[in-house]
Write a structure and sequence with these properties.
Blueprint: H1 4-7, E1 12-15, H2 20-31, E2 37-42, H3 55-68, E3 73-77, H4 79-95, H5 102-118, E4 125-127, E5 133-137, E6 160-164, H6 182-187, E7 188-189, H7 197-206, H8 228-236, E8 241-245, E9 251-255, E10 277-282, E11 287-291, E12 300-311, E13 320-324, E14 332-338, E15 348-357, E16 364-368, E17 374-381
Parallel strand pairs: 1-2, 1-4, 2-3, 4-7, 8-11
Antiparallel strand pairs: 5-6, 6-17, 8-9, 10-11, 12-15, 12-17, 13-14, 13-16, 14-15, 16-17
Helix pairs in contact: 2-7, 4-5
Length: 383
C-alpha cells in the first residue's frame, strides 16, 4: 500500500508499457489525487521491418491510458542504450556458455538507468507496474558505500530502503529488480506491488481500461513477440554441434549452437524418445550433453559459488537465507558461507537445504531473508 506521505509534494513519473499492470499503477496514483507525467520507453529492433514487434500496439495502449487520466505522455527513445548495453551483456554471456538474464539488467540499465539520465532525473519518484514493494528502515545505516552508486539525498543518509516481495508469489518480480542500485531503489514506487494479479485485473475491468483483458507479455523485456532464439541468432548466428547422451556417450542428434540451450532445459531439443534434459555443456567443443530425466547426479547441485554480490542497499545478507536461481513462485532454503570476510564479502558458497536441478553458471542467485520478505540483492552463479 502506498503511503501518502511518501509521495506528497514529490514529482512523480510513471513508466507505461501498454500492459494492464502499469495502467492500474496510474489509476492508483490518480485515486490519490495525483496526475503524474507518463513515459513510454521506446525500444525497437535495429531493423524493425524484419521483426514481428508489438511496440506500436503498446504505445497505443499507453496513450489511451494516459489520456484517460489526463496525464501527459512522452515517448523516450532508449533504443541505442538497450542494444548497446543490454544486448551486449546478453550476447557476451551466451557466447561464453553462460545463462544471462536480460530482464534483470534491463531494469538496472534502462528503466531505472538510461531513462533517469534522459528524463527521470527531473522526478523524485519513478513508478512502474512491477509486483514488488519497498520499506524504509530508519534503524540502520548503509554499511557499503559503493552500493549507493551516487550519494543519497540530504535527509536520507540515516534511512535504509528495502526491496520487499509482493504477496502474489506467482507474479512477484523482486528477482528482476535485484541488481538495481540503492539510489534507483530510493526513487522506485510500485503502486500495485501490494496486490494480487486478480485484484489488478478486477480494477482494470471495473474502470474499463483499454487493456483490461490484454494478456501478460511473455519473453524478454521490450522484445514483444520476438522469439529469444531469434534474438540470439540475429547476433551470434548458428554453430552446429553434437548432442550426446551423458550416460552412454552416444551421439543422438545435433544442435544449432550451444548458446541456444541452457542447463536444465527440457523443451525445444527436437530429439525423439524424450523427455531429454540438458545437464552439461562443453563450450570449447560445442557439445550439449543430455539425459532422460532429473536422475543424473550431475544435473543437481546442493553447493555452488556466487560472486560479485550486489547489495541493494548496503546491507550484507545473514547466514540463513532463502533464495531463487530462476523466476519461479518457490523460494529455496539455504545458508551462505562467505569466501572472504568483512566488507569484501562479495563471494559466497550457497549451501542449499536440498539438491537443486538446473543450476547454471551466469544465472543470478537472488538472496532474501529466511522469511523471503526482504531482498538483499543478487550475485552471479559461477560453479
Amino acid at each position: 500500500m502506498i503511503d501518502v506521505g511518501q509521495i506528497e509534494g514529490k514529482r512523480t513519473a510513471v513508466l507505461l508499457s501498454g500492459g494492464v499492470d502499469s495502467a492500474v499503477a496510474v489509476h492508483q496514483l490518480a485515486e490519490l489525487g495525483l496526475k503524474p507525467d507518463c513515459f513510454y520507453i521506446k525500444i525497437g529492433p535495429e531493423e524493425q521491418e524484419e521483426w514481428d514487434c508489438s511496440s506500436e500496439e503498446d504505445l497505443e495502449m499507453a496513450t489511451s491510458v494516459a489520456h484517460r487520466y489526463g496525464c501527459h505522455l512522452e515517448v523516450v527513445d532508449c533504443h541505442k542504450e538497450y542494444w548497446d548495453q543490454v544486448t551486449r551483456y546478453t550476447m557476451e554471456k551466451v557466447k561464453a556458455g553462460l545463462t544471462p538474464n536480460p530482464d534483470v539488467m534491463c531494469n538496472r540499465l534502462i528503466k531505472f538507468g538510461a531513462f533517469d539520465k534522459k528524463c527521470g532525473h527531473d522526478y523524485d519518484l519513478i513508478a512502474t507496474g512491477h509486483y514488488a514493494q519497498t520499506e524504509i528502515d530508519p534503524s540502520h545505516l548503509p554499511c557499503l558505500g559503493e552500493a549507493l552508486d551516487t550519494p543519497p539525498t540530504q535527509g536520507e543518509t540515516e534511512r535504509v530502503f528495502w526491496l520487499c516481495t509482493s504477496p502474489d508469489p506467482v507474479k512477484d518480480q523482486t528477482d528482476f529488480l535485484a541488481q538495481i542500485y540503492d539510489w534507483q531503489l530510493r526513487k522506485a514506487l510500485f503502486p500495485i506491488g501490494h496486490m494480487m494479479k486478480e485484484e489488478v485485473r478486477a480494477i482494470a475491468e471495473r474502470e474499463h481500461l483499454v487493456n483490461a483483458k490484454r494478456k501478460d507479455s511473455q519473453g524478454i523485456c521490450f522484445l514483444g513477440k520476438i522469439d529469444y532464439n531469434e534474438y540470439i541468432r540475429r547476433y551470434l548466428g548458428e554453430w552446429p554441434g553434437d548432442v550426446v547422451e551423458l550416460e552412454t556417450g552416444r551421439k543422438i542428434g545435433q544442435h544449432k549452437g550451444h548458446w541456444f540451450h541452457t542447463i536444465g532445459q527440457r523443451k525445444g531439443m527436437g530429439l525423439g524418445g524424450g523427455p531429454w534434459f540438458v545437464v552439461k555443456k562443453d563450450i570449447e567443443e560445442n557439445i550439449i550433453y543430455v539425459a532422460h530425466g532429473y536422475d543424473p547426479q550431475t544435473a543437481y547441485k546442493q553447493d555452488f559459488v556466487i560472486h560479485g554480490f550486489h547489495s541493494l542497499n548496503g546491507q550484507l545478507p545473514p547466514e540463513d537465507i532463502t533464495f531463487k536461481i530462476r523466476h519461479t513462485p518457490e523460494f529455496l532454503k539455504g545458508r551462505l558461507e562467505p569466501i572472504t570476510s568483512g566488507l569484501e564479502a562479495r563471494s559466497y558458497i550457497v549451501h542449499a537445504d536440498a539438491p537443486i536441478h538446473g543450476v547454471a553458471p551466469g544465472q543470478f542467485c537472488v538472496i532474501y531473508d529466511n522469511k523471503h520478505h526482504r531482498c538483499y540483492g543478487s550475485a552471479e552463479i559461477t560453479l
